[in-house]
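Lab notebook, bench 4. Still working through the backlog of constructs that have no structural model yet. Next entry is a single chain of 190 residues. Request: give me the structure tokens for it.
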Amino acid sequence: ITPDEATGIGSWTAEDIALALQIGAEPDGEQLHPVMPYMRFSALSDQEALAIGEYLLSLDPVANEVPEGELSEEPAAYTPANEPPAEAPTDPVARGEQLVTVTNCGGCHTPKNEDGSAMADMLLAGAPLREEFAHNITPDEATGIGNWEYEDFKNALQKGQRPDGVTLHDAMPWKAYAGMQEDDVEALWK
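Model written out:
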């Protein structure tokens, strides 16, 4: 996804990239396959999606012909459940909800129904994850992180270390969150 004209997205505009992120549409109107997680990126504000597009177009182009893959199914038409917001939420709780959606915390920490859909009433309550278990990250004091202090949460999120000193499993992408802005960490905590 570098701005190479021949093999990348060099012919796309920042607006094209924003639409691909938010609604899964290519500039020609073709639907992207859901392996591209646009369903959760629909929570990005227009401003945030556009900023990502501008960033991607600022990268050095890399010519890399990627062979066409064979997908198991054609993508279904997708309409976001909610219209992508024009601006990022400023309320810390709403911002935290947006970040939980965009970063897909529920993808690991929420148990699934037999059909693979998330158990909505068990959001972030912990779930089996391959040979491991993604822990309950709700504020439940008995089974979740309700007894943690903010610094405990921040250390787990950004340094990969639980309050008891145990290092988090590599499946938890804490290194990706190491540079997260303080106000975003606080929003997730709230």
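Notes after review: Strands lie at 127-129, 132-134. The radius of gyration is 18 Å. Flag for follow-up if needed.
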